[in-house]
Recover the amino acids of this structure.
């Protein structure tokens, strides 16, 4: 479970990083410093332990609910 959480976390970080890079590529050079600042702040926010815990908790809750629903369907 920890490996899956780590993999998912890395996947989300990579997706955010790719989106930021794409936006930076499309923007004029004059605003590059502002974009870099936003990029750094987003990266720091994603790496925040509290945010990671909230995301993990939310996913665990939702995944557990879905599994319970599937188990109920199988039982019925």
């Amino acid at each position: 479970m920890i490996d899956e959480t780590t993999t998912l976390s890395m996947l989300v970080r990579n997706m955010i990083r790719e989106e930021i890079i794409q936006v930076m590529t499309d923007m004029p050079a004059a605003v590059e410093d502002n974009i870099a600042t936003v990029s750094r702040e987003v990266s720091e926010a994603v790496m925040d332990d509290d945010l990671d815990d909230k995301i993990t908790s939310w996913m665990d809750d939702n995944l557990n609910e879905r599994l319970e629903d599937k188990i109920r369907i199988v039982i019925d």
Summary: The mean pLDDT is 67. The chain has one domain: 2-75. The chain is about 90% helix and 0% strand.
